[in-house]
Amino acid sequence: MTLCTSIYGFEHFKRNSFEQFCINYANEKLQQEFNAHVFKLEQEEYLREEIQWKFIDFADNKPCIDLIEGKLGVLSLLDEESRLPAGTDASFLQKLTTQLDKPDNKRVFKKPRFGNSAFTIAHYALDVTYEAEGFLEKNRDTVPDEHLALLASTKNPFLKEVLDAALASVRPSDAPPASPAASDSGSQSSRRSSLIPDPGRVALVTSGAGQVGTTGAAGAGKRTGVGKKPTLGSIFKASLINLMDTLSTTNVHYIRCIKPNELKRAWEFNPQQVLGQLRACGVLETIRISCAGYPSRWTYEEFAERYYMLTKSAIWVTTIKQNKIRELCLAILNATIKDEDKYQSGLTKIFFRAGMLALLEGQRSDRLNELVTIVQKNMRRKMAVKKYQELRSATIRIQTWWRGRLAQKFVNGVRKEATAIRLQKAIRRFLRRKEFLDTRNAVVRIQSRTFIAGAEGLFGAHPFPL
Amino acid sequence: MSRCSFRFPRVAQHLVTQILFDGKTEIVGARIRTYLLERSRLVYQPETERNYHIFYQLCAGAPLKERKDLGLDTDINKFFFLKQGGPSSTPIPNVDDAEEFRLTQQALSTVGISVEKQWAVFKLLASLLHLGNMQITQSRNDALLDDNEPSMLLATRFLGVTASEFKKWTVKKQIVTRSEKIITSLNGSQATVVRDSVAKFVYACLFEWLVAIVNESLAGENGEAASKAEMFIGVLECVAVYAFHWSTY
After folding, report:
1. Mutation for A interface: B197, B214, B246, most A CBs within 10 A
2. Residue A362: CB partners within 8 Å, gap ≥ 6?
3. Lower Cβ count inside 10 Å, N or C end of chain B?
4. Is A2-140+255-278 CATH 1.20.58.530?
5. How many CB atoms lie within 10 A of CB B33?
6. A150/B165 Cβ within 8 A
């Protein structure tokens, strides 16, 4: 079964009266339930995981609830005073002070420093000072029998129907024992009974129905329990207890709604107001309870996955390969948390004291930073080397090319020179040879002329002139 | 102080809606229950807050004839039970009470309340407003209420009770002992408390009646759903009033 509860907040006004008292009493009860619920869940988990744990002390608001609803508590004193014809708010306050202003109640009940018209109750959220004025009247809040009889005699058929319906909605078991007549009138509702507990049916008419019942009977001359009419406080208490009974039969889930600002504006956040609400609805207290035990927990798998890097890779590589997650986790814990009281290993989860997760997270981020630095270092080195090598090979290529060019130039020069020399040599040779031949020819010609002339003289003229 | 809580007819501080399921997780019906019902609002509203919306809707939305018959007025300042929240409490910006009244009537028809019966409801509501306007005065230590006090006559007429009896038991009280009955006078504020307690009682009964009708309509024939139901999801709706006016004394 599921029941969604939305608890309305604590009330603390400039002047606090019976209404605030009732509302804050309801809040105390719901807070107690909430605390117990949160606490129970915690303990169940500890038990299930079979970890060693000691009972954790948390700020129980039981003393405050006892002060309000206990045997000699505020409500019963109020009822007692309300039933006295001569009771007044002042005498009620007097009674409160004499009965409750004791060392035992020192922490929950206080007398204000000034004046004697008020009393202070230390609620779980904050101390609230209630003005006693009006408490009695508001608590009595009962319709006189004569008026009830008058209403019952109405000639308005619809009012009659309404009164009857209100009567019918009260179940016999819910009716106060002081008014036996009510049980008869309530029996009509039995057809409504089902498998679902329905204690809420008492609500407002408990008193009314009882009274109309008794007055009905009174008409027949029987009058019972006049002095024992339920008061508003007792109705409220009964209704609250019924609500608690319903709550206890269900799986409770809590959603806390926080009003971020008074003006209903979007994106506006008033820190004081929000903090006040968180405190008033007990969220801060719940966190405190949670912190007193083992507030953080990880399953072994999750823990190993997040923190494996806190051990040496030699350990985690092998343990993960062999699927020994538990060993890995213990190795991580040994390496990180020195104080063994700070954690507990359950069956499937590891439980941590407050602050341990922050410690682990710190170490994890340190470790990761360190590792990232190493990766960065290597990467940077690799990049630098690569860049250097590219530069170097490019340089060499340029040099090679340039040197080639130079060599080609040189060789060309050499070749041209050699060619030029060869040409010069040939030309020079030719010129010299020509000169020589010319000279020789000339010589020969001269010589031959001389010879011819001689021979001509001897042999006649030359047949072919030179 | 939160005004968003006024968006819906604020009839109860705690309403529990249960959605009922049978064994096969089929929804078979729903049921509303009331816890810790707030009633004091009927007779007293803090600054900036309204009484239950239905009263304002009724005053704004009732047709002329009915308004006259029920002794209502569009000026809510004529009713002590409606004006205590001060001028900032009503009207609510962007909310048309007359239109809301129309929607409320529609809703009441939907859950199976005939128009005739609706006006019977409104008549009772009007009687409560007149109760609030009853002039109780005090001379010396005794509460005084005129026999022909017009508001009282209207209220008692609508409630169908005898005005003289009503007057008597508003300003006097009877203590019954084993042997005799002693009748004493109340003072003005005590008589007002009696008046208020009657008004609250009638209102609470009326509310309970309405819840029963709604449950009837949600639970199917003869409450069949409730007997079939094996599981339920409950939504406990409490009006969140986080008011921290830090006191300085």
Report:
1. B197
2. none
3. C
4. yes
5. 23
6. yes
> Does A250 contact chain B (CB < 8 Å)?
yes
Q: Could you state, in order of their start, the residue ranges of all structural domains in chain A? A: 2-140+255-278, 145-230, 294-354
What is the pTM for the complete model shown? 0.61
Q: Give the residue carrying structure tokens 């900036």.
A: B48
Report the alpha-carbon distance of residue B71 to residue B68 in Å, rounded.
5
Q: What are phi and psi of A251, to 5 degrees?
A: -85, 120
Closest CB to B124: pick one of A23, A159, A280.
A159
Q: Which two tokens stand for residue B135?
A: 């002039």
- Terminal Cα-to-Cα distance of chain B (whole angstroms): 21
What are the structure tokens assigned to B91, written together?
């009207």
Provide the pLDDT for residue B220: 63
Topology of domain B4-238, per CATH?
Four Helix Bundle (Hemerythrin (Met), subunit A) (1.20.120)
Q: What is the dihedral of CA A195, A196, A199, A202, to 10 degrees?
A: -80
- Beta-bridged to residue A130, according to DSSP, are A16, A119
Residue spans of the domains in chain B: they are 4-238
pLDDT at B6 over 70: no
Q: What is the pLDDT of residues B162-210, one digit of tens each?
A: 999 999 898 888 877 778 888 888 888 888 888 988 998 899 888 888 8
A–B CB contacts, 8 A cutoff, strictly below: 205
Write out pLDDT tens, residues A120-166. Answer: 988 877 788 898 888 887 787 678 888 888 888 889 999 998 888 77
Which chain A positions have a beta carbon within 8 Å of B234's beta carbon?
A: 2-4, 246, 250
Interface of B with A in 119-138 (CB under 8 A): 120-121, 123-124
What is the spatial distance between Cα A59 and Cα A38, in angstroms, rounded to a whole number? 13
Q: Tell me which chain B residues have a C-beta less than 8 angstroms from the C-beta of A154.
A: 159-161
Residue A194 to residue B227, Cβ atoms within 8 A: yes
A30 interfacial to chain B (CB closer than 8 Å): no
Q: Which of residues 95-134 of A touch B (CB under 8 A)?
A: 114, 129
Spatial separation of the C-alpha atoms in residues A96 and A79, rounded to whole Å: 12
Would you say A300 and A348 are in contact if contact means Cβ atoms under 8 Å apart? yes
Reduce the DSSP state of residue B14 to 3 states and report it.
strand
Sheet with B27-35: list strands edge to edge. A251-254, A2-5, B231-238, B14-21, B27-35
* A203–B123 CB contact, under 8 Å: no
| Same fold across A2-140+255-278 and A294-354 | no
Amino acid at position A79, single letter: D
A294-354: CATH topology: Alpha-Beta Plaits (3.30.70)
Q: Which residue, chain included where needed, has tokens 């008193």?
A: A207
Report which DSSP code applies to A117: S
End-to-end CA distance of chain A: 153
> Letter for the amino acid at B62?
A
Distances (CA, A) of A454 to A418, A444, A459: 52, 15, 8
Q: What angle do CA A20, A26, A29 make, to 5 degrees?
A: 140
